[in-house]
Structure to design on (88 residues):
């Protein structure tokens, strides 16, 4: 299941113009490009995400605080803890 943040792959590979996204699997999470299918290390992605703008929103169902990277304001998100869609 894809999760945010969506990270521009061109920040790491100028020859690719699509995005990296996080995929959760039984053995942990991986970042994969949806254009070229490259698998990118968490360390490389972390360098980009650290500099990204983000906002926080609290899930009204479970109370978990979710960080949404790449946005300064959020009006809807899927809670990372309970998996429910939230519209603010």
């Amino acid at each position: 299941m894809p999760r945010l943040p969506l990270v521009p792959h061109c920040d790491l590979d100028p020859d690719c113009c699509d995005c990296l996204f996080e995929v959760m699997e039984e053995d942990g999470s991986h970042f994969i490009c949806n254009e070229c299918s490259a698998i990118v290390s968490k360390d490389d992605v972390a360098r980009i995400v650290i500099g990204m703008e983000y906002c926080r929103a609290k899930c009204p169902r479970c109370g978990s605080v979710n960080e949404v990277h790449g946005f300064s304001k959020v009006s809807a998100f899927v809670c990372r803890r309970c998996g429910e869609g939230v519209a603010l």
Q: What stands out?
A: The helical segments are 42-50. Residues 42-50 form the longest helix (9 residues).
